[in-house]
Amino acid sequence: TGLFTCPVQGKYFFNTNIVLGDLSSNHTVGVIQFSTSMNAPLPQKGSVGNLGAQKDNNNNIDLSLSAFLNLEVGETVGVQIVVYNATKTVDLLGNNSRAQNSYFEGFLVC
Description:
single chain, 4-stranded antiparallel sheet, 8 strands, mainly beta
């Protein structure tokens, strides 16, 4: 489902890397953040600025984010990516020929 469901109350560490593809120079704003089902205030939100200016020669970009989150049993965590200012659809790339792939991982710290 792309969501983590908390089995035990505690502090968790989450890490993600998302590879977006098919970007254009018009994609000028991007944001990556963790979201929870409890809509708790999150400590990390990455504004990545002008995606179109940062894309590589294949029109791809890597977005990364890490955070410690305090979670309750049953709470879910996912990743939200928002790209603005263009009508062209952006691709989410999984396993591909690039050295870096998209992933979402986490574990209980304490």
